[in-house]
Design a protein that fits this description.
alpha/beta, two-stranded antiparallel sheet, 12 strands, about 20% strand
Length: about 400
């Protein structure tokens, strides 16, 4: 059974504590927009998958209760930074299993400052990602910088040593995504920076500067996922976007065998998920027009180019430098501004990617519209680990 995105919505992503709202307010805004976009009432929703990382158990119920009290099952989802796309995947599976209309919702109310990576009280021995950080520490030591920045920064160092990737190529990712976000009213930042300005910003963990790192953010995003018969019954064919294929992978021995941060931050997972999606859809990266990928740090965008098959290993720095991943190039990657500039409220990120691609494939993305876009790919990853790749196609 096919599944379609028929309604999407999101809040503006904001700096934490900059707006007087709570996570349920964010959820009400994003969920209400998605329902309005689909032109349906909440009482048609049969199940809800709700993602978040930093709120208490059953926060999903508190969030959707703002939309209605209909007694539907609510599933609380927590899968690190891949939480939003995991909620979307669950919604798709519910539809393929027989439901007609399911809501996927993600939100996050975060604290200011760098995102931590340890267990309770900062005890890395109890952290779910202790094995990942152990690989990092064995190869690079453990420094007094934010741990997520260190593990990705160390992956950048490895890429530079292996392939000759330059700081300017890493900074080109940040410059591109900040430039793209200037046309996105939902983005946390709309400032444009040149490569030299990116390089001159405060260093977070060498070689990554602040303008190459995703910020902590508050915000929410939502999608209504529907069956083919629901689309036909409610006359939604003009706005329906098909979920052509989707896959989630988790870590295998390959993630740890090399002892590199390049692998431990998820490149093998991303590659495996992409291959599954291409096989299921009967399409390849050459058929994709627009990509929203997980650029939590600039290096992860480069690693993901390689994992998705956009270039060979080691060629990603040259790819972004060539202009192939912006307007006028082969693909437009992160037209929303990506995590670096749009923002990264963990539970909402994967669903915000789906919203952006839905607007792109409908042709309603305004000043950031990718001309003639008919196929879009979303990539969302979380340490610990999970990688979700979704291929969307204009119905």
């Amino acid at each position: 059974m096919k599944a379609y995105l028929v309604g999407v919505g999101m809040t503006k992503f904001e700096k934490p504590e900059s707006r007087d709202w709570q996570y349920w307010d964010m959820a009400e805004e994003a969920g209400g927009k998605a329902l309005d976009d689909a032109g349906i009432a909440y009482d048609l929703v049969e199940q809800a998958a709700v993602g978040y990382c930093f709120q208490a158990s059953t926060a999903g119920q508190r969030a959707v209760y703002t939309l209605g009290l209909t007694g539907v099952p609510v599933y609380n989802v927590n899968n690190n930074c891949a939480t939003g796309s995991t909620a979307l995947m669950m919604a798709r599976q519910f539809v393929e299993g027989g439901n007609d209309c399911v809501l996927a919702l993600g939100f996050e109310e975060m604290a200011r400052g760098a995102l931590g990576g340890g267990g309770d009280g900062g005890d890395f021995k109890t952290s779910p990602v202790a094995r990942h950080y152990g690989i990092m520490a064995a190869g690079h030591g453990f420094e007094m910088t934010p741990p997520t920045a260190q593990i990705f920064g160390d992956a950048a160092r490895e890429h530079m040593e292996l392939y000759g990737t330059t700081p300017a190529q890493l900074a080109a990712v940040g410059a591109k995504n900040h430039r793209h976000s200037a046309g996105n009213p939902y983005a946390q930042f709309q400032d444009v920076y040149e490569v030299d300005e990116i390089l001159a910003a405060r260093t977070v963990h060498e070689p990554l500067t602040k303008l190459q790192c995703s910020p902590t953010s508050d915000g929410a995003a939502a999608a209504v996922v529907a069956s083919e018969r629901f689309v036909e019954r409610h006359g939604l064919g003009d706005r329906a976007i098909e979920i052509a294929a989707q896959a989630m992978t988790t870590d295998t021995e390959e993630s740890f065998a090399s002892g590199t941060c390049i692998d431990v931050v998820g490149k093998p997972m991303s590659r495996a998920a992409a291959r599954q999606v291409y096989e299921r859809a009967g399409l390849g990266i050459e058929d994709v027009d627009v990509v929203e990928l997980h650029d939590c740090f600039s290096i992860n965008e480069l690693l993901t180019y390689e994992a998705l098959g956009m270039c060979a290993d080691g060629e990603s720095g040259k790819l972004v430098e060539s202009g192939a991943t912006t307007y006028g190039g082969r693909w437009v990657v992160n037209p929303s501004g990506g995590l670096i500039s749009k923002g990264h409220p963990l539970g909402a990120t994967g669903l915000a990617q789906a919203a952006e691609l839905t607007w792109q494939l409908r042709g309603t993305a305004g000043p950031r519209q990718v001309t003639g876009a008919r196929t879009g790919l979303a990539h969302n990853i979380g340490l610990g680990g999970a990688a979700v790749v979704t291929l969307l196609r204009k119905a």
